[in-house]
Design goal:
alpha+beta, 4-stranded antiparallel sheet
Length: 147
Protein backbone atom coordinates (compact mmCIF):
# COMPACT_ATOMS: atom_id res chain seq x y z
CA UNK A 1 0.00 0.00 0.00
CA UNK A 2 1.60 3.21 -1.09
CA UNK A 3 0.66 6.85 -0.87
CA UNK A 4 -0.95 8.67 -3.77
CA UNK A 5 1.20 11.11 -5.69
CA UNK A 6 -1.52 13.72 -5.13
CA UNK A 7 -3.39 13.13 -1.85
CA UNK A 8 -6.63 14.55 -3.31
CA UNK A 9 -6.69 12.10 -6.22
CA UNK A 10 -9.27 9.34 -6.15
CA UNK A 11 -7.90 5.80 -6.20
CA UNK A 12 -9.87 2.78 -7.33
CA UNK A 13 -9.50 -0.50 -5.47
CA UNK A 14 -11.41 -3.76 -5.31
CA UNK A 15 -13.00 -5.34 -2.26
CA UNK A 16 -14.35 -8.88 -2.13
CA UNK A 17 -17.33 -9.34 0.21
CA UNK A 18 -20.06 -11.94 0.57
CA UNK A 19 -23.14 -11.11 -1.51
CA UNK A 20 -25.43 -11.04 1.53
CA UNK A 21 -23.18 -8.52 3.28
CA UNK A 22 -23.21 -6.27 0.21
CA UNK A 23 -27.02 -6.51 0.00
CA UNK A 24 -27.35 -5.53 3.66
CA UNK A 25 -24.91 -2.65 3.15
CA UNK A 26 -26.90 -1.40 0.14
CA UNK A 27 -30.15 -1.64 2.17
CA UNK A 28 -28.55 0.36 4.98
CA UNK A 29 -27.40 2.99 2.52
CA UNK A 30 -30.87 3.18 0.98
CA UNK A 31 -32.46 3.74 4.43
CA UNK A 32 -30.00 6.58 4.96
CA UNK A 33 -30.68 8.08 1.53
CA UNK A 34 -27.24 7.09 0.25
CA UNK A 35 -28.39 4.59 -2.36
CA UNK A 36 -26.31 4.43 -5.50
CA UNK A 37 -23.19 5.82 -3.85
CA UNK A 38 -21.29 2.96 -2.25
CA UNK A 39 -18.03 4.86 -2.64
CA UNK A 40 -19.15 7.73 -0.43
CA UNK A 41 -20.58 5.32 2.16
CA UNK A 42 -17.26 3.43 2.29
CA UNK A 43 -15.32 6.72 2.53
CA UNK A 44 -17.56 7.69 5.49
CA UNK A 45 -16.81 4.38 7.22
CA UNK A 46 -13.08 4.82 6.61
CA UNK A 47 -13.14 8.37 8.03
CA UNK A 48 -15.09 7.24 11.11
CA UNK A 49 -12.58 4.46 11.73
CA UNK A 50 -9.67 6.91 11.51
CA UNK A 51 -11.39 9.32 13.91
CA UNK A 52 -11.93 6.50 16.44
CA UNK A 53 -8.27 5.59 16.09
CA UNK A 54 -7.21 9.19 16.75
CA UNK A 55 -9.15 9.22 20.04
CA UNK A 56 -6.98 6.51 21.56
CA UNK A 57 -5.06 7.56 24.66
CA UNK A 58 -2.17 5.08 24.90
CA UNK A 59 -0.36 6.93 27.70
CA UNK A 60 -3.37 7.26 30.04
CA UNK A 61 -5.15 4.86 32.34
CA UNK A 62 -8.42 3.83 30.71
CA UNK A 63 -11.53 1.84 31.52
CA UNK A 64 -13.66 0.19 28.91
CA UNK A 65 -15.47 -2.75 27.47
CA UNK A 66 -14.71 -4.97 24.53
CA UNK A 67 -17.70 -6.67 22.94
CA UNK A 68 -17.17 -9.54 20.49
CA UNK A 69 -19.43 -11.87 18.56
CA UNK A 70 -17.68 -14.91 17.20
CA UNK A 71 -18.18 -18.41 15.83
CA UNK A 72 -16.54 -20.74 18.32
CA UNK A 73 -16.41 -23.50 15.68
CA UNK A 74 -13.86 -21.54 13.62
CA UNK A 75 -10.60 -23.48 13.77
CA UNK A 76 -8.94 -23.12 17.12
CA UNK A 77 -10.49 -19.71 17.82
CA UNK A 78 -11.60 -20.49 21.38
CA UNK A 79 -8.09 -21.59 22.32
CA UNK A 80 -6.54 -18.51 20.72
CA UNK A 81 -9.01 -16.17 22.48
CA UNK A 82 -8.17 -17.77 25.82
CA UNK A 83 -4.43 -17.71 25.12
CA UNK A 84 -4.44 -13.99 24.33
CA UNK A 85 -6.68 -13.13 27.28
CA UNK A 86 -4.35 -15.00 29.65
CA UNK A 87 -1.57 -12.62 28.57
CA UNK A 88 -3.68 -9.66 29.78
CA UNK A 89 -4.96 -10.83 33.18
CA UNK A 90 -4.01 -7.52 34.81
CA UNK A 91 -6.14 -5.58 32.32
CA UNK A 92 -9.21 -7.86 32.23
CA UNK A 93 -11.41 -7.10 35.24
CA UNK A 94 -14.28 -9.41 34.31
CA UNK A 95 -15.78 -11.34 31.40
CA UNK A 96 -19.29 -12.28 30.39
CA UNK A 97 -19.82 -15.15 27.97
CA UNK A 98 -23.20 -15.79 26.34
CA UNK A 99 -24.05 -18.66 23.97
CA UNK A 100 -26.20 -17.03 21.26
CA UNK A 101 -26.89 -20.21 19.30
CA UNK A 102 -25.14 -23.49 18.47
CA UNK A 103 -22.18 -21.74 16.82
CA UNK A 104 -22.09 -18.10 17.92
CA UNK A 105 -21.01 -16.57 21.19
CA UNK A 106 -21.11 -13.08 22.65
CA UNK A 107 -18.24 -12.15 24.91
CA UNK A 108 -17.90 -8.91 26.83
CA UNK A 109 -14.67 -8.01 28.61
CA UNK A 110 -14.53 -5.29 31.26
CA UNK A 111 -11.10 -3.68 30.98
CA UNK A 112 -8.94 -1.36 33.04
CA UNK A 113 -5.32 -0.35 32.58
CA UNK A 114 -2.75 1.48 30.50
CA UNK A 115 -4.33 2.57 27.22
CA UNK A 116 -1.61 1.04 25.09
CA UNK A 117 -2.16 -2.40 26.65
CA UNK A 118 -5.96 -2.18 26.36
CA UNK A 119 -5.80 -1.18 22.67
CA UNK A 120 -3.20 -3.88 22.00
CA UNK A 121 -5.46 -6.53 23.56
CA UNK A 122 -8.50 -5.39 21.58
CA UNK A 123 -6.56 -5.27 18.32
CA UNK A 124 -5.25 -8.81 18.83
CA UNK A 125 -8.66 -10.28 19.69
CA UNK A 126 -10.61 -8.48 16.96
CA UNK A 127 -8.09 -9.52 14.30
CA UNK A 128 -8.71 -13.23 14.87
CA UNK A 129 -10.41 -15.18 12.09
CA UNK A 130 -13.91 -16.11 13.25
CA UNK A 131 -14.58 -12.91 15.19
CA UNK A 132 -17.55 -11.57 13.22
CA UNK A 133 -18.00 -8.29 15.04
CA UNK A 134 -16.28 -6.44 17.81
CA UNK A 135 -16.13 -3.03 19.35
CA UNK A 136 -13.97 -1.43 21.99
CA UNK A 137 -15.42 1.44 23.99
CA UNK A 138 -12.96 3.26 26.24
CA UNK A 139 -12.62 6.37 28.34
CA UNK A 140 -9.61 7.80 30.13
CA UNK A 141 -10.14 7.39 33.87
CA UNK A 142 -9.18 11.01 34.59
CA UNK A 143 -12.06 12.23 32.41
CA UNK A 144 -14.44 9.80 34.17
CA UNK A 145 -13.45 11.15 37.61
CA UNK A 146 -14.24 14.74 36.55
CA UNK A 147 -17.95 13.96 36.14
Amino acid sequence: MGACENPGDLVRFSVAVPGELLSQFDERNARRGESGNRSEAIRDLMRASLVRESLRTPDEQVIGSLTMIYDHHTGDLTRRLDEIQHDYTHEIVSTLHVHLDHANCLEILALKGQGARIYELADKLLALRGVHHGELTCAATESCLDV
